[in-house]
Amino acid sequence: MAEPEAGSGAESSFISHLIELRNRLLYALASVGLVFLALVPFSAEVYTLLAKPLMDVLPAGASMIATDVASPFLTPIRLTLGLAVVIAVPFILYQVWAFVAPGLYKHEKRLALPLLFSSIALFYAGMAFAYFVVFPVAFGFFAKAAPQGVAMMTDIRSYLDFVLSMFFAFGIAFEVPVAVVILVRMGVVRAESLAAKRSYVVLWAFIVAAVLTPPDVFSQVLLAVPMILLFELGLFVARRITPRERAGEAQTPTEEQMDAELDRHERELAAVEKRSKE
């Protein structure tokens, strides 16, 4: 009689986790939808703001063009949807955190929360750096490099694809400190080894910058240099976190601590099942 009850409990627990996951996904999609609906009436103004770095460097009388009939309508809507996702990222990541946090230990939560907040802030910082620093320099270079007699008229859809790829590239590149801390914390590599291979990191930073940025030296340097500085920041943080975390891990938990942790998981599981039934 005990086996069916155990199997039924495991099945109900699995179903409750699926329900919880579904609810978290619905909350995340709803947040994107609400932000999108709030921004749709201002989609044209949003695209104008995005196009400002290019429009500021174009010659007098020059403008952007639309080669497709529906582009003047669809391109701003597409940008607005992407902006809604970016704005809703903190809430989306909160839903992810709320789903996985009950299964984490306290020391894992202490490490995960700062990394979560810092990754969001660094991604936004990378996008802001691209918009305010890189775009004016890169577009100014392109405008001046145009041969005489050639009018620079950029298609609005091509421009959107370009800037979105640049936003993504700089946002990901600014996650270097988080990646360094995670790799060191997981034991994949030691901070001392990374410091010893600093020259290779600098080389790879310029290689990545050359691949991700336009073919001009200014944009490449503007991406490579922040990546190198952020690598040093991640190395600095990793060196100070790892000894304390390892010292905490070296202590073998007592039976009382293990029992208390098991009781905590059982209470959290019961709470999840209760919420799903409600």
Automatic annotation (TrEMBL):
Name of the featured protein: Sec-independent protein translocase protein TatC
Subunit-structure text: The Tat system comprises two distinct complexes: a TatABC complex, containing multiple copies of TatA, TatB and TatC subunits, and a separate TatA complex, containing only TatA subunits. Substrates initially bind to the TatABC complex, which probably triggers association of the separate TatA complex to form the active translocon.
GO cellular component, as recorded: TAT protein transport complex
Residues spanning the membrane: 25-44, 79-100, 112-142, 162-183, 195-212, 218-238
Pfam families (alphabetical): TatC
Keywords: Cell membrane, Membrane, Protein transport, Translocation, Transmembrane, Transmembrane helix, Transport
GO MF annotations, alphabetized: proton motive force dependent protein transmembrane transporter activity
Span of the signal peptide: none
Compartment(s): Cell membrane; Membrane
Entry function: Part of the twin-arginine translocation (Tat) system that transports large folded proteins containing a characteristic twin-arginine motif in their signal peptide across membranes. Together with TatB, TatC is part of a receptor directly interacting with Tat signal peptides.
Record's bilayer topology term: Multi-pass membrane protein
Family as reported in the entry's similarity comment: Belongs to the TatC family.
Taxonomic source organism: Candidatus Muproteobacteria bacterium RBG_16_65_34
Main location: membrane
UniProt-listed GO biological process terms: intracellular protein transmembrane transport; protein transport by the Tat complex
Matches recorded under PANTHER family: SEC-INDEPENDENT PROTEIN TRANSLOCASE PROTEIN TATC, SEC-INDEPENDENT PROTEIN TRANSLOCASE PROTEIN TATC, CHLOROPLASTIC-RELATED
